[in-house]
């Protein structure tokens, strides 16, 4: 019997990769982790060195930590994800102790495709992260963590104002034309919103299936999923693809909702909660849990449908050229 999972898991420091760590939620989480005394090395990973370098400088200036590196990663390109994993392996950084799958996009105006021809919401929010984590798992230390940023918008009972997700076979979700046909009765904006909430449901299928497979493989890795709540305001650029009127409301009107609704938060508040989830080094028995800010809660009933999680895992493995087994 493999006893790795029974070892207490509370390593200090090591490297944490934060996708999308140069802006929004990821940046605020990076700030709190950099200020922690645990000695973390932070790799922020997103598309543009031009946007990441000033973010790294700000983090160094504001936290006093010098252990912050930027590495380019475009989750809309499977080749870019593979190159990132190779570069990371040879970068000579401290041992990999955590991956925070935070980057995300919401294409509200039109259907877009990744470099690999995959519908872009599904491609960036799910498939790119799937490949990234799979490629890095071999380097992730025992006692390490994978944190997956999902959203309460995956759950219609949370009444977030976003449409319910519509999970289809991954072959349909990933094919821009097939997905358009499936959602033909909706306006382009509604289609974008359904794809977004569906991708956040896929984040949960991925997190829970990853947890089950790591358990079966005897690995002591803690997988958690996180809901930051709605974070309107200029702190989050998630509205960058919204029509101008909605972008205005997001930046200047909706932040006032924080006064009345605890599900509406700032990137600073939720970035702090996300960092805390990493820094509290949950025991491995708590792997596979979903966190609403600082509290563990159940996610939607639909998110626990194991056959779907398995289907998505197997399809994603085949699409990225990996074996399904860990
Ligand atoms: N904002 C909300 O109200 C809200 C609510 C619930 C959940 N969430 C989730 O929270 C996470 C962070 O959202 P946020 O509000 O902080 O968004 P944001 O301000 O738009 O930041 C997104 C980050 O992801 C990066 N990114 C986007 N596309 C990428 C790609 N193809 N490859 C690599 N990096 C990419 C961006 O970097 P560059 O553009 O510089 O490359 C940026 O650093 C997302 O997963 C989102 O779904 C947000």
3D architecture notes:
- By secondary structure, the chain is α/β, with parallel strands linked by helices.
- The protein has a single domain (78-181, 188-319), classed as Rossmann fold (3-Layer(aba) Sandwich), CATH 3.40.50.720.
- Helix content is 41%, strand content 14%.
- An 8-stranded mixed sheet has the order 3-2-1-4-5-6-7-8, sandwiched between helices.
- Strand 2, helix 2 and strand 3 form a beta-alpha-beta unit.
- It is globular and about 50 Å long.
- NADP nicotinamide-adenine-dinucleotide phosphate is lined by residues 19-20, 22-26, 46-48, 51, 73-76, 102-105, 124, 149, 151, 228, 230-231, 236-238, 267.
CATH homology superfamily name: NAD(P)-binding Rossmann-like Domain
* Major β-sheet profile: 8 strands, mixed
- Helix-strand sequence: EHEHEHEHEHHHEHHEEH
Shape: globular
- In terms of quaternary structure, the protein is single chain
Beta-strand portion reads 5-15%
Structural class based on helices, strands and sheet pairing? alpha/beta
Which distinct ligands sit in these coordinates? Answer: NADP nicotinamide-adenine-dinucleotide phosphate
Low-confidence stretches: 1-10
| CATH level 1 class label | Alpha Beta
């Amino acid at each position: 019997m493999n006893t790795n999972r029974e070892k207490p898991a509370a390593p200090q420091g090591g490297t944490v990769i934060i996708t999308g760590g140069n802006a929004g939620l990821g940046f605020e989480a990076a700030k709190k982790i950099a200020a922690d005394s645990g000695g973390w090395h932070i790799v922020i990973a997103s598309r543009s060195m031009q946007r990441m370098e000033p973010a790294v400088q700000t983090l160094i200036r504001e936290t006093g930590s010098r252990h912050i590196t930027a590495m380019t990663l475009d989750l809309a390109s499977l080749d870019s994800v593979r190159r990132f994993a190779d570069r990371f392996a040879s970068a000579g950084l401290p041992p990999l102790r955590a991956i925070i799958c935070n980057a995300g996009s919401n294409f509200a105006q039109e259907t877009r495709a990744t470099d690999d021809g995959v519908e872009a919401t599904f491609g960036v929010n799910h498939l790119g992260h799937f490949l990234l984590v799979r490629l890095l798992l071999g380097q992730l230390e025992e006692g390490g963590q994978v944190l997956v940023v999902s959203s309460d918008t995956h759950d219609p009972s949370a009444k977030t104002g976003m449409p319910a997700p519509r999970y289809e076979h991954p072959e349909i979700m990933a094919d821009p034309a097939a997905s358009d046909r499936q959602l033909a009765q909706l306006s382009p904006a509604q289609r974008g919103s359904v794809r977004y909430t569906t991708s956040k449901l896929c984040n949960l299928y991925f997190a829970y299936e990853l947890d089950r497979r790591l358990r079966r493989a005897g690995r002591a890795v803690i997988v958690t999923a996180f809901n930051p709540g709605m974070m309107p305001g200029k702190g989050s650029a998630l509205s960058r693809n919204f029509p101008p009127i909605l972008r205005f409301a997001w930046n200047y009107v909706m932040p006032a909702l924080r006064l009345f609704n605890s599900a509406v938060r700032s990137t600073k508040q939720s970035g702090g909660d996300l960092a805390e989830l990493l820094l509290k080094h949950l025991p491995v028995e708590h792997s596979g849990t979903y966190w609403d800010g600082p509290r563990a809660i159940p996610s939607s009933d639909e998110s626990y449908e194991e056959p779907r999680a398995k289907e998505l895992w197997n399809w994603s493995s085949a699409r990225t050229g990996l074996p399904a087994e860990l």
